[in-house]
């Protein structure tokens, strides 16, 4: 077995973080790295102290909201949002860091990523979001898909 590259190593950890997700539809994990050190982790799920969707059901399922649409109609936060919030909560500077995420960020998360100063995004899969891609390109945030 060969030693994994840094990108493979961090994506493996990102997949492990995704296992903490309480989302009934999609488990997403994210980590922030700077100088080959993990700064923060995040996964998709409801805010702290709020009942999990496993307990109360999925609002998006109840409303028949298609995947990739109407992100605001959800009790949970995206992994990238939780990641940025966790870093802020703990006073960790994340500018010029690299994001590893199991899914390509949506446009809402992309706007947060840009304003947080994150410079590169590695992801595995996800739905097409042209506006997200355009905003990354305009701000020179590298968006790189890693093969599984």
Q: Could you say which overall geometry the principal axes of the C-alpha atoms support?
A: globular
* Number of strand elements: 5
Residue-averaged pLDDT, rounded?
93
Major pleated sheet? 5 strands, mixed
Strand content: 15-25%
Which consecutive residue ranges, at least 5 long each, have pLDDT under 50? none
Strand order of the largest sheet: 2-1-3-4-5
Helix content: 25-40%
What structural class do helix, strand and pairing data support?
A: alpha/beta
Helix segment tally: 6
H and E order: HEEHHHEHEHE
Q: Could you give the distance between the termini?
A: 16 Å
Multimeric state of these chains?
single chain
Rg from alpha-carbon coordinates? 15 Å
Give a description of the structure.
The protein is an alpha/beta fold. It is 35% helix and 20% strand. It has helices at residues 6-18, 53-56, 59-62, 79-89, 107-116, 130-139; strands at 29-34, 37-43, 98-103, 120-125, 142-145. It has a five-stranded mixed beta sheet with strand order 2-1-3-4-5, with helices on both faces. Strand 3 (98-103), helix 5 (107-116) and strand 4 (120-125) form a beta-alpha-beta unit.
Helix and strand arrangement:
Elements: H1 6-18, E1 29-34, E2 37-43, H2 53-56, H3 59-62, H4 79-89, E3 98-103, H5 107-116, E4 120-125, H6 130-139, E5 142-145
Parallel strand pairs: 3-4, 4-5
Antiparallel strand pairs: 1-2, 1-3
Helix pairs in contact: 5-6
Can I get a quick summary?
This protein has 148 residues and is α/β, with parallel strands linked by helices. It is 35% helix and 20% strand.
Can you give keywords for this protein?
6 helices; single chain; alpha/beta; globular; five-stranded mixed beta sheet; 148 residues
């Amino acid at each position: 077995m060969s030693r994994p590259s840094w990108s493979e190593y961090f994506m493996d950890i990102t997949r492990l973080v995704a296992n903490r997700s309480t989302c009934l539809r999609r488990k997403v994990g994210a980590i922030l790295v700077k100088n080959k050190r993990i700064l923060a982790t995040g996964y998709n799920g409801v805010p702290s102290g709020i009942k999990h969707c496993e307990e109360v059901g999925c609002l998006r399922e109840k409303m028949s909201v298609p995947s990739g649409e109407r992100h605001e109609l959800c009790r949970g936060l995206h992994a990238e949002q939780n990641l940025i919030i966790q870093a802020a909560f703990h006073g960790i500077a994340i500018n010029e860091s690299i994001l590893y995420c199991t899914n390509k960020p949506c446009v809402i998360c992309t706007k947060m990523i840009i304003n947080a100063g994150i410079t590169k995004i590695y992801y595995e899969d996800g739905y097409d979001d042209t506006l997200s891609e355009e905003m990354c390109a305009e701000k020179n945030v590298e968006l790189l898909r890693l093969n599984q």
